[in-house]
Design brief:
Largest sheet: 5 strands, mixed
Oligomer: single chain
Strand content: 15-25%
Structural class: alpha+beta
CATH class: Alpha Beta
Number of strands: 8
Bound molecules: coenzyme A
CATH superfamily: Gcn5-related N-acetyltransferase (GNAT)
Order of helices and strands: HHHEEEEEHEHEE
Shape: globular
Mean pLDDT: 80
Distance between the termini: 37 Å
CATH architecture: 3-Layer(aba) Sandwich
Length: 164
Amino acid sequence: MGAGEGGGEMAAAAISLDGVRDKNVMQLKKFNTALFPVRYNDKYYADALASGDFTRLGPSRLLPALDLKEGGAICVYIMTLGVLAPYRGLGVGTKLLNHVLDLSHKQNIWEIYLHVQTNNDDAIAFYKKFGFEITDTIRNYYMNISPPDCYVLGKVIAQPHAKK
Ligand SMILES: CC(C)(COP(=O)(O)OP(=O)(O)OC[C@H]1O[C@@H](n2cnc3c(N)ncnc32)[C@H](O)[C@@H]1OP(=O)(O)O)[C@@H](O)C(=O)NCCC(=O)NCCS
């Protein structure tokens, strides 16, 4: 899975990731409640169910990502990516993100991006390790959490083909 070397990452490599379906969507809701200060609405869960292989769920972590088109570009937007606190630093996040990167390469996705709260140093360090860069800062992006500001983190996967 491209998880590299080391004991923790070996453990992460043994974890299998499952798709999200009606029968385990409650598990996804529980993970989100434990991991994120934001509450997600029904559309989020409908999108997660519709996102096919991009969404991956396991006993200790989750990864919903949503395919969307923006200005003609085919992008992947990572809605949430989280690992429960006791399991962090073991390479699980790496495994989840590599899953999205691999699928994006195969499906000729142009760019992956996400929003992250400006004080989330762990997540920012995590994504930067994979070549993501801060492309924008949005003030007052979040309504009920502090700080309310977010960074947009992006990584270009492939350049669109030039028009003939
Ligand atoms: C961000 C998150 C997903 C990382 O998951 P993880 O399983 O701990 O990550 P990994 O073990 O695969 O770490 C990969 C790399 O990320 C970086 N990293 C991860 N956690 C870090 C931390 N706390 N501080 C600094 N760097 C960190 C390191 O470079 C690490 O590589 P290394 O172990 O060789 O040093 C996890 O911290 C998390 O779930 N946070 C809460 C939810 C969240 O904020 N998600 C992001 C917004 S969508």
